[in-house]
Amino acid sequence: MKNCSINIIKRQFFTYRQPYFNKLPKFYNNFQSKMTLITISQSLDESYTKHKVVPEVIDQFDTQGLLSIEFKENHMVSLGNLLSVEATQSVPKIQLTLNSPTQDGKIESIDKDDKFILVMTDPDAPSASDHKWSEYLHWLVTDLKLNHDQNNNQDISHFILAKDGNELVEYNGPAPPPKTGKHRYVFLLYKQDPNVKDLKAPKDRPNWGTGIPSSGC
């Protein structure tokens, strides 16, 4: 997907190791300070490099907001934390909080008619040292629109409801093979190219159907 005509908005990822998982705070619903978002963006960028999400999964990009992902019972995705297989089998709740408005009052380049693509992919399939199935596609939803948080007057917080989009590949929870170590599961949110009208599902989940190891989003 690196060469396709869609622009990345945000990504988050987590790693799995059974049975340990980290519990983190609730969604970051409001960010009143630019400094707060700048600090968060810097931390995210540093974490992507540390865990080699950049450049192994996707090329470098400018962070435009915070993608919050919560599985059942408040199991949050955050900066490569560890979550159990059991906690991640259901479709998560997802919220996008955009960066603070620019000086002219604009919030990024998001329009009410814009559509988005949501991806969950595993670059460590079947393991971090063997990429014959990498990347493994776990979820692909297109034609998503941002749902506004009615309590947020700044219009920077949006819930993403996968059921309202076009689920090209249904959610398939993490299932790392035994003795393959930790896996990185990466969530990506792309701004969909309005000129592309007929997006199709990949032929298969392993390698996104290309048959080429380490290929995918």
Write the layout of secondary structure elements.
Layout: E1 7-16, H1 34-50, H2 53-56, E2 65-71, E3 75-77, E4 82-83, E5 93-98, E6 116-122, E7 136-144, E8 147-148, E9 157-160, E10 166-169, E11 183-191
Parallel strand pairs: 1-4
Antiparallel strand pairs: 1-11, 2-3, 2-5, 5-9, 6-7, 6-11, 7-10, 8-9
3D architecture notes:
The protein has one domain: Phosphatidylethanolamine-binding Protein (Alpha-Beta Complex). It is built from 2 helices and 11 strands. It is 10% helix and 29% strand. The longest helix is centred in the N-terminal third of the chain and has 17 residues, at 34-50. The model is unreliable at 1-11 and 16-35 (pLDDT under 50). A 6-stranded mixed β-sheet has the order 4-1-11-6-7-10, with no helix packed on it. Strands 3-2-5-9-8 form a 5-stranded antiparallel β-sheet. Strand 8 (147-148) and strand 9 form a beta hairpin. By secondary structure, it is mainly beta.
